[in-house]
């Protein structure tokens, strides 16, 4: 659910592409012949200037194209052997919402979803690509998750990918890719969870219980932490980033921790909001949230998991899918860079057959 698929489907390999605020990542798996996916290629390139995407729309395709060329020609570990690409689009510009509707047939349901979407999305429905998934069905009602994506966003990504000679086969929200990776990384850990993608400018949050139930984007990013350290401690942005990466919030009595806490407390409040929303909208039909799963570049900050766990009263841990991935003869990403590859790994894990599921 949430995948924008295209009509030229073939059961052939694809690679994942994740375009972030400051970097571009690629990864390809061999998913056909092995129990666990084998990574056959991956790489990352910085985006400068970083204003390639505005309000979700690709506005500087040349910079993106140069970065993609750079990673494929100069920074690739292994190989990318296909032009077919599945690309993420930013969750922050995607409308999603759970719904409850009376039992009805499929045609009526599609019409009812369109009518409901028109009530809560401030964009004409003709300007949206709309998708929905039935998450629960009873004798009296149907529960659904709906996703609506502005066409101008999807069309700008498609145009960019085709311009650089790629064949786009799927576009989907970043949190869907992360949820796929989470589900595949530890299938025995069957519990309702909050997925948190702590990015540079914003944080994506989602409630995941076998499917995506609620997601939200909040304007709280790790760059705010770096800026606060730089200003309060009178150090350069480079030094501030180093302090964030080395000290973080490990020592509750340090000067760095005192600066970092207000930003993290804002993040805690946003997490609590989505928990309350889930409890009000989805309980008792769905299970209570029992853990917080961290991803994104900001998730590597020392002491973050412990701080959030204590503040929220639930276990918090980093998403670690690497034990389930086979890198073969390829060197793995550095421990620090692994969190940056999580979303693109989830996109690379998209099986071609999922596109038409």
- Beta-strand content estimate: 25-35%
Q: Termini separation (Å)?
A: 9 Å
Tell how many strands the DSSP assignment holds.
17
Q: Could you tell me the mean pLDDT?
A: 89
CATH domain fold name of the largest domain: Nucleotidyltransferase, domain 5
CATH homologous superfamily identity of the largest domain: ATPase, nucleotide binding domain
What is the helix fraction of residues, given as a range? Answer: 25-40%
**Strand order, largest beta sheet:** 1-12-8-2-3-4-7
**Biggest sheet, in brief?**
7 strands, mixed
Write down the Rg: 20 Å
Description:
Helices cover 33% and strands 27% of the residues. The protein is an alpha+beta fold and 357 residues long. It folds into two domains: 4-93 and 150-226 and 256-356, 2-Layer Sandwich (Nucleotidyltransferase, domain 5); 95-149, Dna Ligase, domain 1, CATH 3.30.1490. The chain is globular and about 60 Å long. The N and C termini lie close together (9 Å).
């Amino acid at each position: 659910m949430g995948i924008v698929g295209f009509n030229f489907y073939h059961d052939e390999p694809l690679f994942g592409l994740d375009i972030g605020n400051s970097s571009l990542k690629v990864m390809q798996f061999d998913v056909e012949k092995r129990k666990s996916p084998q990574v056959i290629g991956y790489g990352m390139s910085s985006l400068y200037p970083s204003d390639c995407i505005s309000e979700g729309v690709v506005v500087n395709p040349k910079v993106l194209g140069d970065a993609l060329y750079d990673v494929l020609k100069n920074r690739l570990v292994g190989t990318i052997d296909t032009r077919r690409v599945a690309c993420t689009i930013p969750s922050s510009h995607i409308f999603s919402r759970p719904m409850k509707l009376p039992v009805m047939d499929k045609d009526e349901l599609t019409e009812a979803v369109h009518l409901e979407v028109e009530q809560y999305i401030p964009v004409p429905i003709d300007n949206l690509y709309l998708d929905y998934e039935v998450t629960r069905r009873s004798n009296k009602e149907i529960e659904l998750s709906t996703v609506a994506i502005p066409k101008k966003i999807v069309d700008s990504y498609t145009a960019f990918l085709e311009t650089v000679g790629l064949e786009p086969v799927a576009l989907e929200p970043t949190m869907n890719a992360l949820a796929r990776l989470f589900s595949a990384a530890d299938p025995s850990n069957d519990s309702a969870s909050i997925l948190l993608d702590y990015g540079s400018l914003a944080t994506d949050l989602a409630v995941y219980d076998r499917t995506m139930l609620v997601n939200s984007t909040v304007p709280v990013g790790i760059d705010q932490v770096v800026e606060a350290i730089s200003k309060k401690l009178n150090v350069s942005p480079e030094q501030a980033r180093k302090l964030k990466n080395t000290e973080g919030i490990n020592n509750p009595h340090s000067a760095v921790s005192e600066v970092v806490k207000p930003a993290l407390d804002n993040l805690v409040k946003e997490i609590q909001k989505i928990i309350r929303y889930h409890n009000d909208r989805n309980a008792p039909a769905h299970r209570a949230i029992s853990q917080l799963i961290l991803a994104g570049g900001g998730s590597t900050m020392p002491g973050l998991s412990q701080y959030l766990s204590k503040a929220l009263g639930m276990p918090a841990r980093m998403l670690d899918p690497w034990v389930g991935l086979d890198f073969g003869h390829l060197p793995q990403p550095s421990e620090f860079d692994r969190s940056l590859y999580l979303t693109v790994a989830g996109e690379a894990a998209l099986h071609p057959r999922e596109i038409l599921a």
